[in-house]
Hints:
GMP Synthetase, Chain A, domain 3; Rossmann fold; 2 domains; 34% helix; Mrp-like_CS
Amino acid sequence: MTEPTSARIADILRQVRDADGATILDHAALDATMLRDGTLHVALATDRAAAGRIQPLLPAAEQALRALPGVTAASVILTAHRPASAPGTAPAPAAAPGGGHRPLNLGGPGGRPAQGPILPEVRTVIAVASGKGGVGKSTTAVNLAVGLGMEGLRVGLLDADIHGPSLPRMMGLHQPPQVREGRMAPLEAWGIRAMSIGLLVDERQAMIWRGPMVMGALGQLLGDVEWGALDVLVVDMPPGTGDAQLTLAQKVSLAGAVIVSTPQDIALLDARRGIAMFEKMNVPVLGMVENMSYFCCPNCGHRTDLFGHGGARAEAESLGVPFLGEIPLLADIRASADAGAPIVISAPDSPAGQAYRALAHTVAATVRRAKEKQEK
Length: 376
């Protein structure tokens, strides 16, 4: 089935009118369309003044778009151009490549914002973070979250790395989330609920967004998703110490952070900065994990410390934070992540599977203690 043309979609949108007879396209421009797995995603560019007038029309627009051949569901979102600067004022920041739009909403019909407090049914939020990229943070976050589920906890996993989302591939998720009464429903896999912006865009698309756009998207992945009742929400943070980390700390009460590092000094320098950042935000550091701690030859069993060994343990001791364990460097970890089956599921008795299970068991004890305190 061929994708509906932009002209055909525009014709449908012109049929949706408000009480004054104005159509959606009288106040917005068709910005982008994509048909994926039967769901038609439509982005409309408008300004903030017109957005309030357009939003009540979006459910009717989505219903009309579902009549198109090959379309089983439709989601219309709004993007907004920054208004031009008034004479004598400072110029607006340069637009991002590809149009410079700021997303108003990512989710439900018309992307209507969530009502009430963010995450009202989530007992505990834990961030998995690193000072730099390439240390296996996302792999650790995925296996930790699934491992917590295997410990009997109700678990959610949020991919907060807007620029480089990897959760869909690692969890074997391919379909977009469903929209229910204006809120996105997280997908379920391996016993946990998961959400990532990678489920909303093509994995080959570059997210060329500035800081405010990233912060807005993260806020909506938190607040516009129907997470439901969870014992713990694990947040896979982007690397570094920037906007996303600050946004998360401002929007939710973090119970703690798990810092992932490799043994070598250059990675530990950045891990130290990450710990310092969470301390400044009054977020407890639950401990450090040494990833890629050692390599065991699959043929002869000889152990090699490719990146050194024990650096994260020594750093944790010097900083006065717990050391949560060592994760070996194994090809099976990479293969399981690429295949969409976390190694705690695909090979739970392997050295890596046992290491991640031990990490999850330790963190689960912390979550249960926090839960008991809340219930008292």
